[in-house]
Amino acid sequence: MNARRLKRFVALWWLPVALVAGWWFLSLGRDSFYFPSLQKILAVLWRDLTTGNLLAWLGISLGNMAAGLAIAIVAGTLIGLLIGEFEGLRRAATPTLNFLRSIPPAAIVPLVIVAMGIGSAPKIFIIALACFWPVLLNTIDGVRGIPPQLRDTVKAFRIPLALRFRRVLVMAALPQIMAGIRIAIAVALVLMVISEFFGASVGVGFYINEAKQRFAMPETWAGTVLIGILGYVLSALFLRLERWLLAWYFQDSRTQGDEGA
To answer: From CA 180, how far away is CA 94, in angstroms rounded?
Structure first.
């Protein structure tokens, strides 16, 4: 590791490492019921991942999250491309969209559970509904932000509608679409947990809620820490994917920045 990479590594990790170390040493040896030591929390987390049901439940939760997120990405992108491209459709749909996106997804979780029962279907529906909006709105903004010069070129060459959507609109709006997906991942993680608080017998959310009801605070904290770790890992993986898919976009941004300097 050269000096430049080492400096970047230290700049990236010094604060998280300091916070975790501070939590570890400040809580070490404490016998608080509501705030157990980090050592005890991690020991419980490791125990339940290796010998309990938590690892299997984590897989079920991630499966529901992936299914809901996939539905939201496909539906949000397709509908967003149509609404963003056709002004008449956008004007007609805007009042309805503004009304529907104002309803907090967490508020309808009990209603969805009652209507659809227990199992994976209501949880996938809730996650898909919540993640649909950031993908949709960012896709619309991405399409509307296409430069007029590019649109004029498309008209001049009379590019067919299907090809225009696939090769022009999607590619031009892709940075905004990816930003919407990045937000949707964080939303999906939250709704994954909340949806398992109601009418569930498996999942990480059920693990946290059931431990809370038993006043098993180390288990409750262990589930919460697991969600935090999971959120960081998913975010880091998606950022790598985004950098790969949008390499051309970031390269253009750096080039323009160098020219401006």
So the answer is: 18
Judge whether 113 and 122 are in contact, CB under 8 Å: yes
Q: For the residues of 1-31, what is the DSSP string, one character each?
A: --HHHHHHHHHHHHHHHHHHHHHHHHHTT--
Q: How confident is the model at residue 28, as a pLDDT?
A: 84
Tokens of 127: 């996650």
Distance CA 168, CA 71 (A): 23
Does the pTM surpass 0.90? The reply is no
pLDDT class of 252 with cuts at 50, 70, 90: low
Burial call 121-157: b when 16+ CB within 10 Å, e when fewer: ebbbbbbbbbbbbbbbbbbbbbbeebeeeeeeebeee
Radius of gyration of the chain, Cα coordinates, nearest whole angstrom:
23
Among residues 97, 35, 64, which one has the least CA distance to residue 202? 64
Residues near 260 by Cβ (< 8 Å), separated by ≥ 6? none
Domain ranges of the chain: 53-245
Contacts of 77 (CB under 8 A, 6+ apart): 135, 139, 170, 177
Structure tokens given for 156: 């001049």
The CATH class of 53-245 is: mainly alpha
